[in-house]
């Protein structure tokens, strides 16, 4: 029997708790895979009452969650009291959000969860509490390295049936991007993307289209030299290693329908170059997938939406997509794990 998914609380003042409750209500009609929520059970019950939802909440261990899920929302206690109100983070917010992530990683590495699904966090709230990582992706990599004593290169992928994109640089100022891009970083990101896409999505040789950094991919060095001197050599390295890769390609013609049909992954140079087309095409069902980890991690591709928290109007579509994709990828990975054992 496959273990349930571990769903983190996220920012408790945001829509994460609301989405967990709404998603559980849709478990039968929308085929939601079994999951348990890492949270403060008393907090979840209060939010349930505030929303007027008929959701029974049961405190469980991870091993009990699969049996409880059809009848009640299983909640694994994070051991911290949460007092934040909808739309209003408080001093309990950051410790609770981080404790849920920490315990989810511990659970999946111990086999008590088949994958990790993370609700949105408020990075500004975490930063005020002393959080030092740029975001979820980097923090998950840090926890994994500490637990396994093996360094990992975390790679963000935004996936939807319409488009899969991977940004080489993520949460950094645009002015820093040219200095951060190197041949080795681009090539390493491409390797991780190709390897995990093959292993988890079942495409033996995924086709990678590499976007140029500059307009028109630099026009042979006349509009910036980065594409000629950095991106093109990285593409050549990947091609020499046998990957199905081409580029650098002008980003302004990379995302229309006919172009998308020619590749499986668009490797982009910076955050917005990747996420603007992804969110334009699939805002309500795109999923954030972290590649490069020894376990599956997905997340809805939206933020905390403080203005919607506690209203009952938050759309669970992206979380449901994240849960479904996590279950699919975890199931696809099982034969690989079994073979490794």
Question: What is the tally of helical segments?
Answer: 12
Largest sheet composition: 12 strands, mixed
Corresponding CATH architecture of the largest domain? 3-Layer(aba) Sandwich
Helix content: 40-55%
Please give the alpha-carbon distance between the first and last residues. Answer: 17 Å
CATH class division of the largest domain: Alpha Beta
Structural class: alpha/beta
CATH homologous superfamily label of the largest domain: Isopropylmalate Dehydrogenase
Number of strand elements: 12
Average predicted confidence as pLDDT: 93
Q: Which strands sit side by side, in order, in the main sheet?
A: 3-4-2-1-5-12-11-6-7-10-8-9
Strand content: 15-25%
Helices and strands, in order, run as: EHEHEHEHEHHEEHHEHEHEHEEH
Write down the Rg: 20 Å
Question: What is the domain tally?
Answer: 2
Low-confidence segments, ≥5 residues, pLDDT <50?
335-341
What is the CATH T-level topology of the largest domain? Isopropylmalate Dehydrogenase
Overall geometric form: elongated
What does this structure look like?
Mean pLDDT is 93; it is low at 335-341. Helices cover 41% and strands 15% of the residues. The protein folds into two domains: 1-152 and 293-341, Isopropylmalate Dehydrogenase, CATH 3.40.718.10; 155-292, Isopropylmalate Dehydrogenase, CATH 3.40.718. It is built from twelve helices and twelve strands. It has 341 residues and is α/β, with parallel strands linked by helices. Helix 4 (93-109) crosses helix 6 (136-148) and helix 8 crosses helix 9 (226-240). Strand 3, helix 3 (65-68) and strand 4 (73-77) form a beta-alpha-beta unit. The protein starts with a strand and ends with a helix. It is elongated and about 60 Å long. Strands 3-4-2-1-5-12-11-6-7-10-8-9 form a twelve-stranded mixed β-sheet, with helices on both faces.
């Amino acid at each position: 029997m496959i273990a349930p998914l571990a769903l983190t609380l996220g920012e408790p003042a945001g829509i994460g708790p609301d989405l967990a409750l709404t998603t559980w209500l849709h478990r039968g009609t929308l085929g939601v895979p079994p999951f348990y929520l890492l949270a403060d059970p008393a907090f979840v019950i209060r939010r349930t009452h505030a929303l007027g939802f008929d959701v029974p909440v049961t405190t469980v261990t991870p091993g009990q969650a699969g049996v409880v899920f059809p009848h009640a929302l299983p909640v694994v206690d994070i051991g911290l009291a949460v007092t934040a109100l909808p739309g209003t983070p408080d001093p309990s917010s950051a410790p609770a959000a981080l404790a849920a992530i920490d315990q989810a990683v511990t659970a999946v590495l111990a086999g008590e969860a088949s994958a990790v699904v993370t609700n949105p966090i408020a990075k500004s709230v975490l930063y005020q509490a002393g959080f030092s990582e740029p975001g979820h992706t980097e923090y998950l990599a840090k926890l994994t390295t500490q637990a396994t004593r093996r360094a990992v290169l975390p790679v963000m992928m935004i996936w939807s049936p319409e488009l899969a994109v991977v940004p080489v640089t993520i949460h950094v100022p645009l002015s820093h991007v040219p200095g951060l891009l190197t041949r080795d970083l681009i090539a390493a990101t491409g390797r991780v993307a190709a390897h995990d896409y093959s292993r988890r999505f079942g495409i033996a040789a995924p086709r990678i289209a590499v976007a140029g950094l500059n307009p028109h991919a630099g026009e042979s060095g006349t509009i910036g030299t980065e594409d000629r001197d950095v991106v093109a050599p990285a593409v050549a390295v990947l091609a020499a290693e046998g990957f199905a890769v081409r580029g650098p390609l002008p980003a302004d013609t990379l995302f229309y329908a006919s172009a998308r049909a020619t590749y499986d992954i668009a490797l982009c140079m910076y955050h917005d170059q990747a996420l603007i087309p992804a969110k334009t095409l699939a805002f309500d069902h795109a999923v954030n997938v972290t590649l490069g980890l020894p376990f599956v991690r997905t997340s809805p591709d939206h933020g905390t939406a403080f203005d919607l928290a506690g209203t009952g109007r938050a759309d669970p579509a992206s979380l449901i997509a994240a849960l479904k994709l996590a279950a699919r990828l975890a199931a696809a990975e099982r034969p690989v794990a079994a073979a490794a054992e």
